[in-house]
Amino acid sequence: MGLLVVGSLGLDTVSTPFDKVENALGGSAVYISLAASYFSGPTHIVGVVGDDFPKKYLDLLESRNIDLEGLQIVPNGKTFRWSGKYHYDLNVRDTLLTELNVFETFNPVIPDKLRKSRFVCLGNIDPTLQLRVLDQMEHPHFVVCDTMNYWIEGKKEELLSLLKRVNVLIINDSEARLLAKEPNLVKSAKIIREMGPEILIIKKGEHGALLFTEDIIFSAPAYPMEMIYDPTGAGDSFAGGFIGYLHKTQDLSPENMKCAVVYGSAMASFCVEKFSTKGLEEVEHLRVHDRFREFLNLSRFNEAE
Amino acid sequence: MGLLVVGSLGLDTVSTPFDKVENALGGSAVYISLAASYFSGPTHIVGVVGDDFPKKYLDLLESRNIDLEGLQIVPNGKTFRWSGKYHYDLNVRDTLLTELNVFETFNPVIPDKLRKSRFVCLGNIDPTLQLRVLDQMEHPHFVVCDTMNYWIEGKKEELLSLLKRVNVLIINDSEARLLAKEPNLVKSAKIIREMGPEILIIKKGEHGALLFTEDIIFSAPAYPMEMIYDPTGAGDSFAGGFIGYLHKTQDLSPENMKCAVVYGSAMASFCVEKFSTKGLEEVEHLRVHDRFREFLNLSRFNEAE
User: Fold this and answer.
1) What pTM value is reported for the model?
2) In which band, very low, low, confident or very high, does the pLDDT at A284 lie, cut at 50, 70 and 90?
3) Which end of chain A has less Cβ packing within 10 Å, N or C?
4) Residues of chain B in Cβ contact (below 8 Å) with chain A
């Protein structure tokens, strides 16, 4: 069985101090499946677009062995649009526009053939929709989900129901603090894991990522980037690399989970090197492997005397 | 030869959300030499206090094999005092009071027998004084220095002269950005290394530390602390652990430098577990070694398939 990815597909208008793109390919399901596509195939997207969604973007996804049978294309519908502006230090961004459009009435329907998917990645969308996806699945083996402060604040109850049914939650440090109502990250992790997910990953942007399981804490370094062109999609690319590698290896041991976190970090580092999804489109398999080794070199030290 | 440490000795009044201490032992030279004392001896402090400095603090330092021959005790002088208040998230602190007192007219004099010291740690004091120390040294082999935003902004020229004469600069991320005038840390590191120090360490608090040399970048994780009682002195403890380990091993290879960064991080983690210097006073040698191993486990991952 392939990997099932549910999330948004959108048209992003993004400006950074370096450049600007309009109506570029974006959305959580897009970044997740592109990043995952380097590891295993096929990846099946469930999502929605309007019929204004450019055919070239659909072609691009299909060329990466991403199956679009679960993609709803709404006649006369308008695709989800997001616009953001990043500031000089790139850690601060202003959302200029969010047009839900066809997403407003989206009801995810999992095609029959995908209901037995064992690996499921729920991109950052309304937890009500994420729950509706899980309701249609038959015994998923490994469910990864993402969320954001907007849902933590606005749909807490639905989110808490969801967390009881997922294996992995991937969020960033400020979201973890908000969800746990606790400033200390290590304490936050304990609190959040008690909400349901046996595995928690806290992304810390330029500071790397932390993996918390029952038995281990693993600290993955960040790739030392001299230039970040466009941070959009980094978190989704992380999730895609993480689940893509696990889906490929079918090995959920803690040791392999650490490698998956590093592959997630690697895909995020490719993502931010170019605008929109460009950084993910042009990666050679060998470069993914090389970057993994760079992470090894970056964090490896030996037993002291 | 022993390790020479120059810096402040003070009486700190610190409050955190958990507790408060008044006139506790503090100062950069104190934290550095206590942390270094776990690795090698003797450590020689050059600094100044007033005759109000409690004898019990002098006794404590001497009990840790810290030599006070270079300590000036000013008759009728008043010791340097600092007072700070940490907020709930402990990353934010307000300085409530800084009384330089005897530090205002401090002129560091290196005793003859210490002028040939090969390992020198310049704690965070006025760069003019740090320069005056180096002027008295005869061919020091390895000079580590610390500084802060106050000197980067107010004594830039003196600091730049100093940086040409040190081997290692240890600063935190916001200081690095300020010194390099560059928001990206990797670029900042390049700019700062061009100012003089061949080795730069950027401390990132709860996110670990980065080591930059000509050939490598090394990312050390932070110890996952559930409880930080008092962050005061963490940076100095890091510097003390770092130089103490290098002084003990006399091995300045990149691989050993990485271990030194981890030992620095270990000493910083002990420091913040208790108020004032208490966390450093009560550490067993075995616990230092154990914590080093915990850092190994925290960041180690294997070659992927």
Assistant:
1) 0.94
2) confident
3) C
4) 88-90, 183-187, 204, 206-208, 210, 216-222, 224-228, 245, 249, 255-256, 258-259, 262-263, 292, 296-305
